[in-house]
Task: structure prediction
Amino acid sequence: MLGELEHQVASDSRLILGDAANELKKLEDCLVQVCITSPPYWGTRDYGVEGQIGGESRLDEYLKHLRRVLAETRRVLRDDGVLWLNIGDTYTSGDRGWRAPDKKNRARAMSYRPDTPEGLKPKDLIGVPWRLALGLQEDGWYLRSDVIWHKPNAQPESVKDRPTRSHEYLFLFSKSERYYYDFEAVRERCNGGQAMRNRRTVWSIATEARHPSHLAVFPPDLVRLCILSGSKAGDIVLDPFMGSGTVGLVCRETNRRFIGIEIKREYVDIAAERMGVGDGGEGR
Result:
């Protein structure tokens, strides 16, 4: 039986409303083949949920919370499973308690900003992705690749003293030294499209139009590469920070099963709507 806070999407696929660290503890060991996720970034959005990851006042608390969730993720991964982790960076606040909207990107406005982390200076790029990646190595993960997700349609920024950012990091971690990776499923064209080669570590994929109620939508083309390389048809894919459910949608397209966890009820409802399911009802 499903709990009252779950949606049944299809056989063995679920959308779960709740805190990722707590909900993952309810899943059995070695259940999923691949985890594909993009956690909330630190100090960049206020999702209006008590206890939200990303809203911590201290960087070390944010990293500790993410590592705790990903430790549970590692437990529920199969021994040959992998984690694809998308994480963005940010700058120190300069000890301002708020952030004004950028003239070219109004969504950047925030009513709170965390203090500048100890050891950093105002205007420093924090290096969040690599701080997290190195912490996960300490936790036992194998860091297998850093992928540059190049955004050809990146949001403009009103900055004049540095380049405009047009990339994020996507890390490939494995649970064990040997793991499942289907390189043939994600080969790319070269030599004007006349030949195929192993995929390189710079992926140029445009961002998707944003859902009006969810500001950060994973591009399906990015998710598809992670799913195809990290799993086979019928495998279970996990996203512990589901958002509006893009990973689940691509799982349905590629004949994978899906478990998605999200702390914000509105986003769970959006994901259910995108997948065409009602409260606790079968997919249709």
User: Anything to note?
Assistant: The first strand starts at residue 6 and ends at 10.
